[in-house]
Amino acid sequence: MDEASRYLVEVRKIHPAVADYAAWRHEGHEYVIPYYDALGRERTYRFHVPGGKPKYRSLPGDSPHLYCVENVRYGQVVLAEGEVDTLSVLSCGLKAVGVSGANAFHKSWVHLLDHVDDLIIALDGDEAGRTSARNLKSLLPQARLAELPEGYDLNDVLKEEGPKSLQTLLAQAK
Known about the structure:
This protein is of the alpha/beta class. Helices cover 34% and strands 21% of the residues.
């Protein structure tokens, strides 16, 4: 198992098959996170430095992109905040797409999600996440909102309580 997969599986508790799918790479002191378009072509990259300040960074001049956009289909899709949270949902066997931060959603992306039958918005359990989730709900009225415990994100729930608890939290979205 390479260093990036080991980090995702052992530290973040991401399912090994999902870690392989994510195709992160370890280069120097950071992890390289590839972003693909809906056709599976590499589009851009973000970078993660665990414990760094900032923990995540984008390429200079790059605009935000949806992470795992290829998972936007009919049926149920979870909109998560951050790449690791997106992988956490995928580790539970659910479809997920991610935004790189609470305020990173572009209105131009609404058309990608407005057809989703069961869209669950599951942003972090902090003020920025809750405010952004309410704003997204106004743009995507069919969506349900998942309520995360104060100070938690989806990966915290996966790591501390396991995939069944994360599935239950998402199923209880209103």
